[in-house]
Specification:
With about 375 residues, this protein is an all-alpha fold. The protein has 17 helices and 3 strands. Strands 1-2-3 form a 3-stranded antiparallel β-sheet. The structure holds carboxymethyl coenzyme *A.
Length: about 375
């Protein structure tokens, strides 16, 4: 029997799908050539410098417009009202092994939220919007609750009078954050909210394209975000920083890493050919927080790594690099850094999942087969 290989051989394999255009979106645009990022047409620098909180960005991503004062306060109330999580999910997090990674527990907990969501099996736009808002509201609560469970503390209910950023810090540490701390958390959340067709967003869209439900798509995204080449990089950045005790050690440490073919976490990017525009905001915040906390050395080590990696490899830090020191200064332990990333990126995921449902076609690429054909089949008794 002859096998027609025409289809399998026609397509050129694009490793890592680099440069492949797989969706149309007006949610965000990563301009890799100029080192710019846009959310719904707004430059990220304008957003970082001028928005009053991350909630404004969530409104922009889901409703395509920046909110008026009234819309913002209504929208904030809508989100804060949904921040509570079912006690069954809290109990479930309590029985997870203490050694389990917070991203793994978060992934399982988000999957479990589907059992308690009144709209799980309703795939209408309205139901998906409601589920999206609930997930944007609930993920920060899950993350902070897990932190308190891990530390043997009782979990705290969200405070309806403060915004998401302040609530995360309040529910972590049990006291109201300062203005600067709230601003720093807001900055982290709004800078991580969306980023084109990054790996976890693409994964979420693939799941949504099968008409699976919102919780399934977000669970997929969480599994993808965890990897160290994506959202898991921030945790590795802090592990590296902890191994370097002085600026004088930086050159040798980094040179050794690179000579062993290792990657410096928090550096490099698939799309940006210039500096990631989010880095400047986090670098500045990191410097301010480190100096206020008397930990200037950590900032100096980070800055020296940045200079050395650029000198040797010509690559720039990405969003994960200074997000690590900012989170450290906010008292977040490193194993929770990626969960904070998730607590922000959920807004982008929801916007993309809604978009995918509205303009859906099953995402189903093809592969180039490199195996054999028509091998002689031996019955098990003859092998
Ligand atoms: N350290 C050392 N070398 C690097 C790094 C790095 N962090 N990033 C890229 N390179 C080198 C790589 O070795 C390769 O060199 P050569 O051509 O000599 O072999 C070249 O740059 C191109 O690398 P690539 O792997 O083909 O690039 P990519 O587009 O597939 O990878 C990346 C992008 C982000 C996975 C990669 O830069 C990386 O591994 N960075 C470290 C992990 C990290 O910080 N991830 C966060 C990404 S941004 C935020 C997010 O999405 O979470």
């Amino acid at each position: 029997m002859t096998v027609d290989l025409t289809n399998d051989h026609e397509g050129k394999v694009v490793r890592g799908l680099e440069g492949v255009v797989a969706a149309e979106t007006d949610i965000s645009y990563v301009d890799g050539v100029n080192g710019d990022l846009y959310y719904k047409g707004y430059n990220i620098h304008d957003i970082a410098d001028n928005t009053t909180s991350y909630i404004e960005v969530v409104h922009l991503l889901l409703h395509s417009e920046l909110p008026t004062k009234k819309q913002l306060s209504d929208f904030r109330r809508e989100i804060v009202t949904d921040m509570r999580i079912p006690t069954q999910v809290v109990d479930m997090m309590k029985i997870m092994p203490p050694s389990s990674h917070p991203m793994d527990v978060l992934r399982t907990a988000v999957s479990a939220l589907a059992y308690f969501d009144p709209d799980t099996s309703d795939n209408s736009y309205e139901a998906n919007y409601r589920k999206g808002i609930r997930l944007i509201a609930q993920i920060p609560t899950l993350v902070a609750s897990l932190y308190r469970i891990r530390n043997g503390n009782s979990i705290l209910s969200p405070d309806p009078n403060i915004n998401t950023a302040a609530n995360i810090l309040y529910m972590f540490h049990g006291k109201l954050p300062t203005k600067l701390q709230t601003r720093a958390m807001d900055l982290i959340l709004l800078l991580h909210a969306d980023h084109g067709l990054n790996a976890s967003t693409f994964a979420a869209r693939v799941t949504a394209s099968t008409h699976a439900d919102m919780h399934a798509a977000v669970t997929t995204a969480l599994g993808t975000l965890k990897g160290p080449l994506h959202g898991g990089a921030n945790e590795r950045v802090m592990k590296m920083l902890k191994e370097i005790t002085d600026v004088a050690e930086v050159d040798e440490y980094i040179s050794t890493m690179l000579s062993q073919g290792q990657r410096v976490m928090g550096f490099g990017h698939r799309v940006y050919k210039k500096e990631d525009p989010r880095t400047a905001h986090l670098r500045e915040m990191s410097e301010e927080l480190c100096s206020k906390r008397g930990n200037q050395k950590l900032y100096e080590i980070s800055h020296s790594i940045e200079e050395h990696v650029f000198k040797v490899k010509g690559i720039y830090p990405n969003v994960d690099f200074y997000s690590a020191t900012v989170q450290h200064a906010l008292g977040i332990p490193e194993e929770f850094y990626t969960t904070i990333f998730a607590a922000s990126r959920i807004s982008g995921w929801v916007a993309h999942i809604l978009d995918q449902y509205e303009n859906n076609r099953l995402i189903r690429p093809t592969s180039k087969y490199t195996g054999k054909f028509n091998r002689e089949f031996l019955p098990i008794s003859e092998r």
